TrEMBL record, chain A:
Xref: InterPro entries: Ribosomal_bL19, Ribosomal_bL19_sf, Translation_prot_SH3-like_sf
Taxonomic lineage from the root: Eukaryota, Metazoa, Chordata, Craniata, Vertebrata
Transmembrane annotation, as ranges: none
Protein name (database record): Large ribosomal subunit protein bL19m
Primary location class: mitochondrion
Top-rank taxon: Eukaryota
Organism, as annotated: Upupa epops (Eurasian hoopoe)
Keyword Zinc-finger: no
GO cellular component terms listed in the entry, alphabetical order: mitochondrial large ribosomal subunit
Automatic annotation (TrEMBL), chain B:
Protein source organism: Upupa epops (Eurasian hoopoe)
Family statement: Belongs to the universal ribosomal protein uL3 family.
The keyword tRNA processing appears for this protein: no
Listed PANTHER family: 50S RIBOSOMAL PROTEIN L3 (PTHR11229), LARGE RIBOSOMAL SUBUNIT PROTEIN UL3M (PTHR11229:SF8)
Pfam families: Ribosomal_L3
The name this protein goes by in its record: Large ribosomal subunit protein uL3m
Gene3D superfamilies referenced in this protein's UniProt entry, alphabetically: Translation factors
């Protein structure tokens, strides 16, 4: 072969193939729903075991997909007062709360200029289907600040088509910084207590510095607040994945 | 406490009660107790047999049973007498029955009149001098004394209270757990006395209970979970209207 300036090109060896085994990919992508992890407390672990059995039983009959705060979901519930007896709602998940069977998630959408938030129970028998239209994570665990953000960040089309993930390796993190409506807000989101990374604060520098007055830098070193869930998660993951595989 | 859904889609809050090592300890006849009915002493939850006086351990030794943490008395009719030493299980109750649950409430210590009796107190400002949570007047002028039982500050909680007429939704025979509607007095993992309801509305509600009790070595084989008819079991598909 001759290159553009007449000299013979140096032999380039082909790139080495990177073999990523599918088993390893699937192992790396394990997701344990946060309501399985028991909270800290003095309750008998037998109570959490009984709850987990019921939760696994419900998951065998009805598929609850993996989703995070910031993903867009469509939920159909049975409604005795609707025409078709079903009610479909599309929205972005702003919060996942509760542990065990009472786990809930809040979906937010803006319909005809009116912000609507609906809190659904994951294990309620009235839910007919949960589809994930767009699976993604955001910079925060709690998107309550969308109430004070411009309505364009909370509007989603009711007839949105599901977006399938091409790579089955990592869940994409949307590093969107949201612009807010003018103050007053429902909560003072600039304070370090909320630790929000997903807002583009357009406040003057003195206000941001004044907000740091309420910071509690000793909290991250407080040993009494530590709750290491890694071992508990391992055990519960094994139990749940074995039970669901049967 | 856990949520529980019925077939119509309604949610109820449910308390889990575990029947842990319950045995009948002693039979006290009508003449001995001096009452109208015979009594049965029942004990629950094994505890250490040491550091206790002879008279206390005597009852457990005669019944052939380790020392129990809680001992309570039940008034029984003559046809429901059990032999001391028989174990009692959660299957003694069936879903659909109504039950009274007695326990010691959470102790709050010495509490003021606003928390203990729900008094309104006084305003926070507008000239109040050192008086915001006090009881105010305790009697009238004409009485010239304070009546017995006047609500005043004192030790609150740690007394026996009963929640009446609680429905039993579900029974787990493998782990001996009773799922009872609503809340129950006492803190988590406290010892509790469960009795058939004495309310007049539920007097004829217990249809064919296991009488005198459920015997584990008997002939009937119960499934692991017993549900009430209205309970939504998670093996069924979602509710539709």
């Amino acid at each position: 072969r001759v290159s553009s300036d007449g000299k013979p090109t140096k032999f380039q060896p082909p790139p080495k193939p990177v073999i990523v085994s599918k088993q390893k990919q699937r192992d790396e992508r394990r997701f344990l729903s946060p309501e399985f992890i028991p909270p800290r407390g003095r309750t008998d672990p037998l109570k959490y075991y009984m709850e987990r059995k019921d939760m696994i039983q419900r998951r065998k009959v009805f598929n609850i997909p993996e989703f995070y705060v910031g993903s867009i979901l469509a939920v159909t519930t049975a409604d005795p007062y609707a025409n078709d007896k079903v009610n479909r709602f599309v929205g972005i998940c702003i919060q996942r709360g509760g542990k065990g069977l009472g786990a809930t998630f809040i979906l937010r959408n803006v319909i005809e200029d009116q912000g609507v938030e609906i809190c659904y129970e994951l294990y309620s028998p009235r839910i007919q289907a949960i589809e994930v239209l767009k699976l993604e994570k955001r910079l925060d665990d709690n998107l309550m600040y969308l109430r004070d953000a411009l309505p364009e960040y909370s509007t989603f089309d009711m007839n949105m088509k599901p977006v399938s993930l091409s790579d089955h390796e990592e869940v994409p993190v949307n590093k969107l910084q949201v612009r807010m409506k003018p103050k007053p807000w429902s909560k003072r989101w600039e304070r370090p207590k909320f630790n929000i990374k997903g807002i583009k604060f357009e406040l003057p520098e003195e206000k941001m510095k004044a907000a740091q007055k309420w910071s509690k830098p000793w909290l991250e070193f407080d040993m009494m607040r530590e709750y290491d869930t890694s071992k508990i998660e391992e055990k519960i993951w094994k139990e749940v994945s074995e039970a669901l595989r049967k | 406490m856990m949520p529980l859904w019925t077939k119509s889609g309604k949610k109820h809050a449910v308390t889990l009660l575990k029947v842990q090592d319950c045995h009948v300890l002693k039979y006290i006849s009508k003449e001995e107790s001096g009452g109208k009915r015979a009594q049965l002493l029942v004990g629950g939850k094994n505890a250490s047999p040491f550091y206790k006086s002879e008279s206390e351990t005597e009852i457990f030794r005669e019944a052939g049973v380790p020392r129990k943490q809680k001992v309570s008395m039940f008034n029984v009719t003559d046809d429901a007498i059990l032999k001391p030493g028989t174990p009692l299980y959660a299957a003694h109750f069936r879903p659909g029955q109504f039950v009274d649950v007695t326990a010691k409430t959470i102790g709050k210590g010495f509490q003021g009149v606003m928390k203990r009796w729900g008094f309104k107190g006084q305003p926070a400002s507008h000239g109040q001098t050192k008086t915001h949570r006090r009881p105010g007047a305790i009697s009238t002028n004409k009485a010239s004394k304070v009546y017995r039982g006047k609500k005043m500050p004192g030790k609150m909680g740690n007394i026996y209270r009963t929640s009446h007429g609680l429905k039993v939704w579900r029974i787990n025979t493998k782990h001996d757990i009773i799922y009872v509607n609503g809340s129950v007095p006492g803190h988590t993992n406290c010892l509790v006395k469960v009795r058939d309801s004495k309310l007049p509305t539920y007097r004829d509600f217990n249809k064919n209970p296991p009488f005198p009790t459920y015997f584990a070595d008997g002939d009937e084989e119960l499934p692991e979970d017993l549900y009430d008819e209205e309970v939504f079991q998670f093996t069924e598909p979602s509710v539709t209207y």
